[in-house]
Amino acid sequence: MIFDYAALGLTLRSHPLLLLREQLSKMKLMTAAQLCDLPNGRLARACGIVTMRQQPYTAKGVVFVTLEDETGHVNVIVWKALKERQRPALLRSRLLAVYGTWQRDVESGGDVCHLIAGHLQDLTPLLGGLTTQSREFC
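Now predict its structure.
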């Protein structure tokens, strides 16, 4: 798996977080699939490999992060104030834990969901020798 990620940036084997799931579950970090069932406004914790960071000029300092785990993707919104307080974790993490509030857009039928970040934690050391890269649009 490590060689797959080094050469291709992905693997056809088990997802790396599947190997870490027991440890992440003990930290009460949910999977993308578990988040899908949460109601709007619920406190939530998620963790994933950072696949994308975006900060559009029109977003007034807001950063959008996409996390990937063995069950899917989680879209994260990081407001400007948190970005300024936790810049190293936001910009350097390859494996990021996010503690925040689950937001489900009820007007869209609940199909549009985001995790509004309240705290970020860099868990990159758990990846060991696995190298990952995110797409940066900042």
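The mean pLDDT is 85.
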